[in-house]
Protein backbone atom coordinates (compact mmCIF):
# COMPACT_ATOMS: atom_id res chain seq x y z
CA UNK A 1 0.00 0.00 0.00
CA UNK A 2 1.38 3.43 -0.94
CA UNK A 3 2.69 5.65 1.85
CA UNK A 4 0.69 8.79 2.62
CA UNK A 5 3.28 11.47 3.43
CA UNK A 6 2.95 13.66 6.50
CA UNK A 7 4.57 16.93 7.53
CA UNK A 8 7.65 15.10 8.77
CA UNK A 9 8.43 14.24 5.16
CA UNK A 10 8.71 17.97 4.32
CA UNK A 11 6.17 17.57 1.53
CA UNK A 12 5.35 20.65 -0.55
CA UNK A 13 2.02 20.82 -2.38
CA UNK A 14 1.35 23.57 -4.92
CA UNK A 15 -2.17 24.86 -5.47
CA UNK A 16 -2.17 26.09 -9.04
CA UNK A 17 -5.27 28.26 -9.19
CA UNK A 18 -8.28 28.76 -6.93
CA UNK A 19 -10.88 29.10 -9.67
CA UNK A 20 -13.62 27.15 -7.85
CA UNK A 21 -14.50 26.32 -4.25
CA UNK A 22 -12.79 22.93 -4.40
CA UNK A 23 -9.14 23.90 -3.80
CA UNK A 24 -10.14 25.82 -0.68
CA UNK A 25 -11.73 22.62 0.59
CA UNK A 26 -8.79 20.50 -0.56
CA UNK A 27 -6.37 22.71 1.32
CA UNK A 28 -8.03 21.99 4.66
CA UNK A 29 -6.98 18.36 4.35
CA UNK A 30 -3.68 19.03 2.60
CA UNK A 31 -2.55 21.42 5.33
CA UNK A 32 -2.47 18.48 7.75
CA UNK A 33 0.13 16.72 5.60
CA UNK A 34 2.17 19.32 3.74
CA UNK A 35 3.38 22.87 3.40
CA UNK A 36 1.35 24.80 0.87
CA UNK A 37 2.41 27.06 -1.99
CA UNK A 38 -0.32 28.89 -3.88
CA UNK A 39 -0.83 30.91 -7.04
CA UNK A 40 -4.10 32.53 -8.09
CA UNK A 41 -4.84 35.20 -10.70
CA UNK A 42 -7.67 36.88 -8.77
CA UNK A 43 -6.51 38.98 -5.81
CA UNK A 44 -9.71 38.52 -3.80
CA UNK A 45 -9.68 34.74 -4.15
CA UNK A 46 -6.03 34.71 -3.13
CA UNK A 47 -6.74 36.87 -0.09
CA UNK A 48 -9.50 34.52 1.03
CA UNK A 49 -7.09 31.63 0.82
CA UNK A 50 -4.22 33.27 2.66
CA UNK A 51 -6.58 34.49 5.39
CA UNK A 52 -7.38 30.84 6.09
CA UNK A 53 -3.81 29.60 5.50
CA UNK A 54 -1.49 32.44 6.56
CA UNK A 55 1.53 30.12 6.47
CA UNK A 56 1.12 29.36 2.76
CA UNK A 57 3.78 30.75 0.45
CA UNK A 58 2.49 32.82 -2.46
CA UNK A 59 3.88 32.65 -6.01
CA UNK A 60 3.42 35.44 -8.55
CA UNK A 61 2.66 33.14 -11.48
CA UNK A 62 2.34 29.53 -12.58
CA UNK A 63 5.99 29.33 -13.68
CA UNK A 64 7.16 30.68 -10.33
CA UNK A 65 4.88 28.24 -8.52
CA UNK A 66 6.27 25.25 -10.41
CA UNK A 67 9.83 26.51 -9.90
CA UNK A 68 9.41 25.75 -6.18
CA UNK A 69 9.69 22.06 -7.19
CA UNK A 70 6.49 20.88 -5.49
CA UNK A 71 6.00 17.23 -4.64
CA UNK A 72 2.48 17.43 -6.03
CA UNK A 73 0.17 19.94 -7.74
CA UNK A 74 -3.55 20.59 -7.33
CA UNK A 75 -4.64 22.29 -10.56
CA UNK A 76 -7.79 24.44 -10.58
CA UNK A 77 -7.91 27.07 -13.30
CA UNK A 78 -10.83 28.15 -15.53
CA UNK A 79 -11.45 25.45 -18.12
CA UNK A 80 -10.22 27.44 -21.14
CA UNK A 81 -6.80 27.70 -19.43
CA UNK A 82 -6.65 24.09 -18.28
CA UNK A 83 -4.87 22.34 -21.20
CA UNK A 84 -1.94 24.78 -21.25
CA UNK A 85 -1.68 24.75 -17.47
CA UNK A 86 -1.69 20.96 -17.37
CA UNK A 87 1.01 20.85 -20.04
CA UNK A 88 3.24 23.02 -17.85
CA UNK A 89 2.62 20.81 -14.81
CA UNK A 90 3.28 17.61 -16.75
CA UNK A 91 6.69 18.95 -17.76
CA UNK A 92 7.71 18.99 -14.08
CA UNK A 93 6.98 15.29 -13.61
CA UNK A 94 5.08 15.99 -10.38
CA UNK A 95 1.82 14.13 -9.75
CA UNK A 96 -1.20 16.30 -10.34
CA UNK A 97 -4.79 16.32 -9.12
CA UNK A 98 -6.85 18.27 -11.64
CA UNK A 99 -10.11 19.43 -10.11
CA UNK A 100 -13.20 18.53 -12.10
CA UNK A 101 -14.08 18.85 -14.88
CA UNK A 102 -10.79 18.53 -16.75
CA UNK A 103 -12.54 19.59 -19.98
CA UNK A 104 -15.92 21.13 -20.73
CA UNK A 105 -15.89 21.62 -24.52
CA UNK A 106 -14.76 19.72 -27.61
CA UNK A 107 -11.83 22.08 -28.18
CA UNK A 108 -10.64 21.64 -24.58
CA UNK A 109 -10.98 17.86 -24.81
CA UNK A 110 -9.08 17.78 -28.10
CA UNK A 111 -6.30 19.82 -26.49
CA UNK A 112 -6.06 17.32 -23.63
CA UNK A 113 -5.94 14.47 -26.14
CA UNK A 114 -2.77 16.00 -27.59
CA UNK A 115 -1.01 15.80 -24.23
CA UNK A 116 0.85 12.75 -22.98
CA UNK A 117 -1.22 12.09 -19.90
CA UNK A 118 0.30 9.41 -17.68
CA UNK A 119 -0.75 7.62 -14.51
CA UNK A 120 0.60 10.64 -12.60
CA UNK A 121 -2.62 12.53 -13.39
CA UNK A 122 -5.81 12.21 -11.36
CA UNK A 123 -9.02 14.01 -12.26
CA UNK A 124 -12.28 12.96 -10.68
CA UNK A 125 -15.46 13.97 -8.99
CA UNK A 126 -14.79 13.73 -5.26
CA UNK A 127 -17.90 11.56 -4.89
CA UNK A 128 -16.00 8.56 -6.23
CA UNK A 129 -14.10 8.61 -2.92
CA UNK A 130 -17.13 9.12 -0.64
CA UNK A 131 -17.33 6.36 2.01
CA UNK A 132 -20.96 5.55 1.16
CA UNK A 133 -19.90 4.87 -2.45
CA UNK A 134 -16.60 3.07 -1.85
CA UNK A 135 -18.35 0.72 0.57
CA UNK A 136 -20.92 -0.35 -2.04
CA UNK A 137 -20.47 -3.77 -3.59
CA UNK A 138 -22.13 -4.11 -6.98
CA UNK A 139 -21.68 -6.97 -9.45
CA UNK A 140 -21.87 -5.35 -12.92
CA UNK A 141 -23.01 -8.66 -14.42
CA UNK A 142 -26.24 -8.44 -12.42
CA UNK A 143 -27.05 -4.84 -13.36
CA UNK A 144 -29.94 -4.20 -15.73
CA UNK A 145 -29.93 -0.41 -15.60
CA UNK A 146 -28.71 2.42 -13.38
CA UNK A 147 -29.68 5.95 -12.47
CA UNK A 148 -27.67 8.73 -10.84
CA UNK A 149 -29.49 11.70 -9.35
CA UNK A 150 -27.46 14.84 -8.66
CA UNK A 151 -29.04 17.44 -6.37
CA UNK A 152 -26.82 20.54 -6.20
CA UNK A 153 -28.22 24.07 -6.34
CA UNK A 154 -26.78 26.34 -9.05
CA UNK A 155 -28.54 29.54 -8.02
CA UNK A 156 -25.25 31.24 -7.17
CA UNK A 157 -24.40 31.34 -10.87
CA UNK A 158 -27.60 33.27 -11.57
CA UNK A 159 -26.16 36.11 -9.46
CA UNK A 160 -23.18 36.38 -11.82
CA UNK A 161 -20.74 34.40 -9.69
CA UNK A 162 -18.01 32.65 -11.71
CA UNK A 163 -19.73 33.33 -15.04
CA UNK A 164 -17.24 31.16 -16.97
CA UNK A 165 -18.57 28.05 -15.18
CA UNK A 166 -22.13 28.79 -16.29
CA UNK A 167 -21.08 29.57 -19.88
CA UNK A 168 -21.51 26.43 -22.04
CA UNK A 169 -18.56 27.30 -24.32
CA UNK A 170 -16.18 27.87 -21.40
CA UNK A 171 -16.98 25.87 -18.26
CA UNK A 172 -19.76 23.72 -19.67
CA UNK A 173 -22.61 24.99 -17.52
CA UNK A 174 -24.76 22.83 -15.28
CA UNK A 175 -24.84 19.90 -17.71
CA UNK A 176 -21.06 19.44 -17.40
CA UNK A 177 -20.09 20.89 -14.03
CA UNK A 178 -22.84 19.12 -12.09
CA UNK A 179 -23.46 16.29 -14.53
CA UNK A 180 -19.95 14.98 -14.02
CA UNK A 181 -20.90 13.81 -10.53
CA UNK A 182 -23.49 11.42 -11.90
CA UNK A 183 -21.50 10.20 -14.90
CA UNK A 184 -18.42 9.67 -12.71
CA UNK A 185 -20.28 7.43 -10.28
CA UNK A 186 -21.85 5.32 -13.02
CA UNK A 187 -18.56 4.86 -14.89
CA UNK A 188 -16.87 3.94 -11.62
CA UNK A 189 -19.48 1.18 -11.22
CA UNK A 190 -19.71 -0.08 -14.79
CA UNK A 191 -16.52 0.96 -16.60
CA UNK A 192 -15.58 3.30 -19.45
CA UNK A 193 -17.20 1.44 -22.39
CA UNK A 194 -20.08 3.90 -22.48
CA UNK A 195 -21.63 6.40 -24.87
CA UNK A 196 -24.26 9.11 -24.72
CA UNK A 197 -27.64 8.09 -26.13
CA UNK A 198 -29.33 11.47 -25.61
CA UNK A 199 -29.53 14.57 -23.45
CA UNK A 200 -31.88 17.43 -22.62
CA UNK A 201 -31.77 20.48 -20.40
CA UNK A 202 -34.11 23.22 -19.26
CA UNK A 203 -34.37 26.32 -17.07
CA UNK A 204 -37.12 25.77 -14.54
CA UNK A 205 -36.32 28.44 -11.96
CA UNK A 206 -33.10 30.47 -12.36
CA UNK A 207 -33.81 32.67 -15.39
CA UNK A 208 -30.49 34.48 -15.01
CA UNK A 209 -28.47 31.41 -15.98
CA UNK A 210 -26.47 31.08 -19.18
CA UNK A 211 -26.91 27.29 -19.17
CA UNK A 212 -29.63 25.19 -17.50
CA UNK A 213 -30.81 24.37 -14.00
CA UNK A 214 -32.17 20.90 -14.78
CA UNK A 215 -30.88 18.25 -17.14
CA UNK A 216 -30.91 14.59 -18.04
CA UNK A 217 -28.61 12.25 -19.94
CA UNK A 218 -29.29 8.77 -21.30
CA UNK A 219 -26.29 6.43 -21.44
CA UNK A 220 -25.61 2.98 -22.89
CA UNK A 221 -22.70 0.67 -22.07
CA UNK A 222 -21.30 -1.82 -24.57
CA UNK A 223 -22.53 -4.56 -22.23
CA UNK A 224 -26.10 -3.49 -22.96
CA UNK A 225 -26.72 -1.81 -19.59
CA UNK A 226 -28.60 1.47 -19.89
CA UNK A 227 -28.45 4.39 -17.51
CA UNK A 228 -29.65 7.89 -16.81
CA UNK A 229 -28.18 10.89 -15.07
CA UNK A 230 -30.64 13.38 -13.59
CA UNK A 231 -29.31 16.83 -12.69
CA UNK A 232 -31.43 18.85 -10.27
CA UNK A 233 -29.90 22.32 -9.99
CA UNK A 234 -32.78 23.83 -8.01
CA UNK A 235 -32.51 22.27 -4.59
CA UNK A 236 -32.56 23.21 -0.91
CA UNK A 237 -30.13 20.41 -0.12
CA UNK A 238 -27.07 18.74 -1.66
CA UNK A 239 -27.22 14.97 -2.10
CA UNK A 240 -26.37 12.31 -4.65
CA UNK A 241 -28.09 8.98 -5.22
CA UNK A 242 -27.18 6.03 -7.42
CA UNK A 243 -29.99 3.55 -8.03
CA UNK A 244 -29.00 0.12 -9.31
CA UNK A 245 -31.72 -2.04 -10.85
CA UNK A 246 -31.28 -5.83 -10.92
CA UNK A 247 -33.61 -8.79 -11.36
CA UNK A 248 -33.98 -9.00 -7.58
CA UNK A 249 -35.00 -5.36 -7.19
CA UNK A 250 -33.53 -1.89 -6.80
CA UNK A 251 -30.82 -0.63 -4.48
CA UNK A 252 -30.00 2.98 -3.60
CA UNK A 253 -26.54 4.26 -2.74
CA UNK A 254 -27.03 7.64 -1.07
CA UNK A 255 -24.16 10.10 -0.67
CA UNK A 256 -24.63 13.16 1.51
CA UNK A 257 -22.46 15.30 3.74
CA UNK A 258 -23.59 13.85 7.05
CA UNK A 259 -21.86 15.29 10.11
CA UNK A 260 -18.52 15.73 8.29
CA UNK A 261 -18.68 17.33 4.84
CA UNK A 262 -15.03 16.64 4.02
CA UNK A 263 -15.39 12.95 4.73
CA UNK A 264 -19.01 12.39 3.71
CA UNK A 265 -18.75 13.91 0.22
CA UNK A 266 -15.34 12.40 -0.53
CA UNK A 267 -13.10 15.49 -0.33
CA UNK A 268 -10.90 13.91 2.31
CA UNK A 269 -10.70 10.60 0.47
CA UNK A 270 -9.75 12.35 -2.77
CA UNK A 271 -6.88 14.23 -1.14
CA UNK A 272 -5.68 11.07 0.56
CA UNK A 273 -5.73 9.28 -2.81
CA UNK A 274 -3.71 12.14 -4.31
CA UNK A 275 -1.20 11.97 -1.48
CA UNK A 276 -0.60 8.30 -2.21
CA UNK A 277 0.45 9.47 -5.69
CA UNK A 278 2.86 11.92 -4.04
CA UNK A 279 4.20 8.86 -2.22
CA UNK A 280 4.81 7.11 -5.55
CA UNK A 281 1.56 5.32 -6.38
CA UNK A 282 -0.19 5.63 -9.76
CA UNK A 283 -3.49 7.45 -10.07
CA UNK A 284 -6.30 5.35 -8.57
CA UNK A 285 -8.53 6.44 -11.47
CA UNK A 286 -7.23 5.34 -14.89
CA UNK A 287 -7.18 8.16 -17.42
CA UNK A 288 -9.23 5.92 -19.77
CA UNK A 289 -12.14 6.25 -17.33
CA UNK A 290 -11.71 10.00 -17.00
CA UNK A 291 -11.53 10.36 -20.78
CA UNK A 292 -14.74 8.36 -21.20
CA UNK A 293 -16.52 10.55 -18.63
CA UNK A 294 -15.35 13.74 -20.34
CA UNK A 295 -16.41 12.37 -23.72
CA UNK A 296 -19.95 11.75 -22.48
CA UNK A 297 -20.14 15.21 -20.91
CA UNK A 298 -18.90 17.00 -24.01
CA UNK A 299 -21.32 15.03 -26.18
CA UNK A 300 -24.16 16.00 -23.82
CA UNK A 301 -23.12 19.65 -23.88
CA UNK A 302 -23.16 19.63 -27.67
CA UNK A 303 -26.58 17.94 -27.70
CA UNK A 304 -28.18 20.71 -25.62
CA UNK A 305 -28.21 24.11 -27.38
CA UNK A 306 -26.79 27.07 -25.47
CA UNK A 307 -29.33 29.65 -24.33
From TrEMBL:
Pfam families: GFO_IDH_MocA, GFO_IDH_MocA_C3. Residues 142-250 form the GFO/IDH/MocA-like oxidoreductase domain. Residues 27-116 form the Gfo/Idh/MocA-like oxidoreductase N-terminal domain. Keywords: Oxidoreductase. It comes from the Bacteria. Transmembrane segments: none annotated. This is Dehydrogenase. It comes from Nonomuraea recticatena.
